[in-house]
Write a structure and sequence with these properties.
95 residues, alpha+beta, 4-stranded antiparallel sheet, 4 strands, globular
């Protein structure tokens, strides 16, 4: 589980786009997007844009400086497990 609640990164296939499975968070894609925007200041590509099968995924563009990726992951870690996170898991918009 670790610091981010069981998020799974699918193996990269010669690309700079990482697909991350957020299903362990138990959030609807719309609520998750609001949470990520409001609490972690992350603006990812929602997998829901790619169809129903992608609804539990977020797509990270990792073609950026290491410091930018580190900062994004730190914001994600800081947002995980907060009161706003728990509200989002319950289907409420806490952001």
């Amino acid at each position: 589980d670790g610091k981010l609640g069981g998020l799974l990164v699918h193996p990269l296939e010669g690309t700079y786009l990482a697909w991350v499975d957020f299903s362990s968070w138990g959030m609807d894609s719309g609520i998750r997007e609001q949470f990520l925007h409001g609490q972690a200041q992350l603006y990812l590509d929602s997998g829901a844009l790619f169809g129903e099968e992608g609804a539990s995924f977020e797509r990270f563009n990792i073609a950026c400086p290491t410091w930018a990726l580190d900062a994004a992951l730190t914001r994600l870690e800081d947002a995980y497990g907060t009161d706003a996170f728990e509200e989002a898991r319950q289907g409420r918009n806490g952001s």
